[in-house]
Amino acid sequence: MINMTVQQVNRFFLLALAPFIGMMLWLLAADMSITIPQLHTPKPNTAAVGPSAQTTGEAVKGLQQAAKTAAATANTINRQTRLYEQTNRSMSAIARTAAVQAVRPEFIYNRRITAKLGAPARSIQSDKLTAQLYVVRAQNFSGYALKVRLKSDKAMKLALGKDKFGGAETTLAAASRYGAVAGVNAGGFADGRGGRYPLSTTVLDGRYVGGFEPTYADLFFVGLNDDRKLIGGQYSSKSELDRENPQFGVSFVPVLLKNGRMTPIPEKWQTSPYRAPRTVMANYKDDQLLFLVVDGRNENGSSGATLAEMQILASRLGAVDAYNLDGGGSSSLIFDGRVVNHPSDGRLRPLATNFLFFK
Question: Where is the Phosphodiester glycosidase domain (predicted)?
């Protein structure tokens, strides 16, 4: 506990207040006074408040109008978006319908010509081609039909025997060597100088093999152009055939159908021989190809088909153009690695040219 005397307390406060006492004495000596200003509460400045409130109100109204405009714009965008999506769906539906309608005539036409052939015995489907094999039975002969839709420039080609001018090989050997899924014998040939040479004008990969020879007598040229369309007929000059842009083709006799009409068969070919194994190359109006290969036990005219019968058969099957290829022992049809027909020689004949198909 702290004990202090009165004298000590007075001394303490005197020392504590000494600075303030000294200041008061100095002010009194200097005759100065201190005036405390009167405090005033400022009145509201109504002139200043008025414009500020007006500006604020206008800003609020502007924001409200902007919000309304934004909402209206958003609604418009939403309506336009829905309209665009609806239109897009409608256009897509129209496009699908148009696509279906575009292929419908082709589908109907293909179904019609296929109905004339019956049910395919075998089929090969790929991105390059569709090949269907049918059995043909007539009153006087039997044989096979190969219907081919080419989808690629690489789906079909002409092959020289052993890939050389004057070479020869069977259709099966050519198909095996090239890895083809199907093959048919092609043009006629002539033997000489130790080789087997294509008859008359022959085109391979757009080039003339052995040169161009104007067609004479009953000869014709048949092949495919650069659009995979069948071309054929008689050509008196190279320039005339060049205008057709042939990619490959061969020659033989005679023409059976042209533009859907039967052409007169020269008397010579009506009886020499009368009946025989036959091979015919034809086309449909949608550019599908049709090969007809008819069997025969021999070439003396006692079996097989006549050219007139082949003409009638091709016409009834709906072909537009039809050309008689080499027949007799040359008639050969290969499908999926197998010999389909029954060669009249008892075995396949080595040939100068063969048509091959690839998947």
Answer: 178-358
